[in-house]
TrEMBL record:
GO terms for biological process: glutathione metabolic process; L-phenylalanine catabolic process. Residues 1-81 form the GST N-terminal domain. It comes from Thauera linaloolentis (strain DSM 12138 / JCM 21573 / CCUG 41526 / CIP 105981 / IAM 15112 / NBRC 102519 / 47Lol). Keywords: Transferase. It holds the Pfam family GST_N_2. InterPro entries: Glutathione-S-Trfase_C_sf, Glutathione_S-Trfase, Glutathione_S-Trfase_N, Thioredoxin-like_sf. It comes from the Bacteria. The keyword RNA-binding does not apply. GO terms for molecular function: glutathione transferase activity; maleylacetoacetate isomerase activity. This is Glutathione S-transferase.
Amino acid sequence: MKLIIGNKNYSSWSLRAWLAAREGGFSFGEIDIPLFIPGSRERILSHSPSGKVPCLNDHGVLVWDSLAIGEYLAEKQPALLPADPVARATARAVTAEMHSGFQALRSKMPMNIRKDYRGFGHTPEVDADIARISAIWNDCRARFGHGGPYLFGHFTLADAAYAPVCFRFQTYGVQPEGAAGDYLAAMLANPHMQDWAAAARAETESIASEDLYD
Ligand SMILES: N[C@@H](CCC(=O)N[C@@H](CS)C(=O)NCC(=O)O)C(=O)O
């Protein structure tokens, strides 16, 4: 099994798939393709039909788009979704909400693990996104979080979906109140998250259009 991913400092969609694969206990190789440099597009297209990362290649089975990759991995490793049907539906709903929403947060606070942009990026729309994310985290922790530190207790695809938000909150100095704040701390302490962050810090490529507040 191989996962084709972009820069660990910047590629939030890559992080979601990679973390789900790590937490699911899969053994996989990585093909790392630095984004937005000459040749990137051709390299991605040689692996991924959408021309985007992440893309999973499981012995010739291609799965592109982080949401589909997560579902594919969860079919092989069911613990990546909650066992209870109500919790599972909620996990899928909050994952889908992340996948299709939060445009203001994405554009004004892009993932950029190496930077310290505390205090930057706030607009009324971004603050509304932050409030909604905090409410999701508090609600999931209160209703389903018993049994572990993650949104549904043990680690699921929902945590993978929100992992880049955790790095964003660290970079931009966003500290949610209450259980959401404890959840953020648990995610940032996750050993696979720390491995990803260490690799991001070791990268040398920069994407100027993502370094918004230099
Ligand atoms: N909805 C897709 C989004 C994938 C995506 O936008 N990937 C970006 C990197 S994070 C990419 O491949 N950009 C390269 C390009 O557009 O050339 C997913 O969830 O996988």
